[in-house]
Write a structure and sequence with these properties.
By secondary structure, the chain is of the alpha/beta class. The chain contains 14 helices and 15 strands. The protein is globular, with a radius of gyration of 31 Å. The relative contact order is 0.11. It comes from Belnapia rosea.
């Protein structure tokens, strides 16, 4: 039976008295040893019975805020309170306390900027997908089916992932990528980022070396640095990471099927060199196959893991590029000797990935809906890609050099008339004109000796845009580029002769130029 409101009123007043006294202690108005008013006087002040005040004092004594001795009034317990601030004196800033070495390494990493509210004509942010491409009916059906299969109890699941999803993923990886593995080797993770974090924690000690491509995925670099590793940048070219003369290390990170961001494909010879290096050094290779579903002008590239006979490759995949990055589902395929260690680490991190989403994804794969969706979205993004390349060629011509267009959901566009030093200024000007553009510079390791073009570079994603928006965006890009080039020319004319420099261009070895007379074919 519920307690009547009149009976609950003394309890509410008792709680209010307790909170008021706690606040005075926290502010320093009542310091350690300060005596509190008698129950009679405080009851008169609050207009309540002494029984209510006595109940409040007893509660505070039980919580350790007050102490009492026979024959004396209650007083504030020792060790509580603080010195009250002086009038007009600002409160001291809160201190974060001492961070661990891991926390101190993280302190220097920038947080991503909050997305602005400004509506852009075209936002070429890479990693975004079009919401209209999400297979809503199929996903709703899969989620509803998972909800209707009611379990007798709610409980934690296998840290490695639902057995049904891992079995479905095993079949999918064989059909889509020619990758042979057992379900026990598959670890379902919260996106590829968690997969990278688990690899760093389990394979790297502070001071160990990790080699990775330069330019490369910046969050992978930060994960390894946070683990205390020394990250050694390795230059890339049209054949991916340059594997000759790699230094001894504990781990290598690579995107061999579609180098991020420049788009090169690692040649068979370099793949063999990388695997031989890993076996020689006792190292592991993290193969990030982040967008393997998208191949346009080239045949699917078998994963590095398919060539691995010594158990040195950890395969990393994600559904962020096919379904949605908001679902936070990815997977690792680890060599059998590492499976138990990854399972324990995953359990300590977050027990397991969300079970409802896992069950829905398993249904999507088993029913064939996932692969039908992949084929549809591959065709749709092929159309967007063709529109972007045709627009860049027609509007900008030789003013831009495009690389990495054979696969994936982005291209890199080198702006031949914009010096690298002016990259940020150009991007800011484009943003003011309604474009979301993103520089390639942050993807290079700081202070690395890697040879890179003198031109400004843009990483241009297209998977979230309609063709009409792509064409409008490229049109505005051309206008901004022309105005920028005109101002740069005036600046060079006004500068002393010694300060004038030739127009920067991207080097030929990286180039994959699309000419105005020959737009790229669709696959």
């Amino acid at each position: 039976m519920a307690m009547p409101p009149a009976a609950r009123e003394p309890e509410r007043i008792t709680r209010r008295i307790c909170e008021a006294i706690k606040d005075q202690i926290a502010l320093g108005l009542l310091g350690p040893g300060s005596r509190l008013p008698s129950t009679r006087s405080l009851a008169a002040e609050w207009g309540v019975s002494r029984t209510t005040v006595t109940a409040a004092y007893e509660q505070l004594i039980a919580e350790g805020y007050l102490e009492t001795r026979q024959g004396t009034r209650a007083q504030v317990a020792q060790g509580l309170g603080q010195s009250p601030p002086q009038p007009g004196q600002p409160a001291p800033p809160a201190s974060p306390g001492r961070l661990s070495a891991f926390g101190q390494r993280l302190a220097g990493f920038p947080l991503p900027p909050v997305a602005g509210t400004q509506r852009l004509v075209a936002d070429f942010r890479y990693g975004d997908l079009a919401a209209a491409d999400f297979p809503m009916p199929a996903w709703r059906k899969a989620v509803t089916g998972a909800l209707l299969r009611r379990q007798p109890r709610l409980r934690y699941g296998d840290p490695c992932g639902l057995p049904g999803l891992r079995a479905a993923m095993q079949g999918y990886l064989w059909r889509a990528r020619g990758l042979r593995c057992e379900p026990e080797q598959i670890i379902v993770v919260n996106g590829s980022q968690q997969g990278l974090d688990l690899c760093a924690r389990l394979l790297l000690d502070p001071g160990d070396r990790a080699v990775m491509e330069d330019p490369g995925y910046n969050l992978a670099r930060q994960v390894f640095l946070a683990a205390g590793a020394e990250v050694v940048p390795v230059a890339v070219d049209r054949e991916g990471m340059r594997t000759e003369g790699l230094p001894a290390a504990r781990l290598a990170y690579a995107t061999p099927s579609h180098q991020f961001p420049l788009g090169g494909v690692m040649s068979a010879g370099r793949r063999r060199e990388l695997l031989a290096w890993a076996q020689r050094c006792g190292a592991h290779v993290v193969e990030d196959d982040y967008d393997s579903e998208y191949r346009f002008d080239i045949a699917p590239i078998p994963p590095l893991q398919a060539m691995d006979e010594a158990g040195r490759v950890i395969y990393l995949g994600t559904i962020s590029k096919t379904l949605s990055p908001t679902l936070r589902l990815g997977y690792l395929v680890v060599p059998p000797p590492l499976a138990a260690a990854f399972a324990r680490a995953k359990r300590l991190t977050d027990r397991h990935a969300p079970l409802l989403e896992q069950e829905a994804l398993a249904d999507l794969i088993e029913s064939g809906a996932y692969e039908r969706h992949v084929r549809r979205v591959r065709r749709r993004n092929g159309e967007r890609r063709a529109a972007l390349l045709a627009a860049l060629s027609a509007r900008l011509g030789d003013a831009v050099t495009v690389v990495g267009a054979d696969a994936g959901l982005h291209v890199v566009a080198w702006l031949n008339g914009v010096p690298r030093a002016r990259e940020e200024a150009f991007i800011n000007r484009a943003h003011a004109a309604g474009l979301g553009l993103y520089p390639v510079t942050p993807l290079y390791a700081p202070a690395a000796a890697t040879l890179r073009p003198d031109a400004a570079g843009l990483v241009m994603g297209y998977a979230s845009l309609e063709e009409s928006a792509i064409r409008r965006g490229v049109g505005i890009l051309g206008e901004v580029l022309e105005a920028f080039a005109a101002e740069e020319a005036l600046t060079r004319i006004a500068a002393p002769p010694a300060a004038r420099t030739a127009r920067p261009r991207a080097p030929a070895p990286h180039a994959s130029r699309w000419r105005r007379s020959a737009p790229p074919p669709e696959r």
